[in-house]
Please model this.
Amino acid sequence: MINVAGHRLGTREIEESVATYPAVAEAAVIGVKDELKGQVPIVFATLKTAGDDDAKHTAADGMQKRVVEMLGGVARPARVYIVNALPKTRSGKLLRRSLQALAEERDPGDLSTLDDPNALEEVRSALKRGPDLGS
Model:
């Protein structure tokens, strides 16, 4: 759960909304600190097919619109990052705590269960280059 401007939102609900967008293969939503709203949702997503920057921007815009349609404007992701892989454990569980730590520029902690170290580097690179949509 995250608290956005006094509204408690489930990241799972936002993930499910994002996942209904046809281009999305997989998504992870985290809450990050925000001075004005307390927390804001951030999306990290992989696409079913690779695309250029325009395709990524279109997909990111579509994800945001889908969340607003399904859950309302308060749940609208502040930023959307398109990556080639999401960090997971060997058993396939998403490492949301690591995503949140990287997004908040903190140490991601113990990564001994990480299945593919390149996935974490994908996220680091995406955070450095900036979101595919959002501020």
User: Anything to note?
Assistant: The chain has one domain: 2-134. Residues 6 and 104 are 20 Å apart (CA to CA). The chain has a mean pLDDT of 94. The two ends are 22 Å apart (CA to CA).
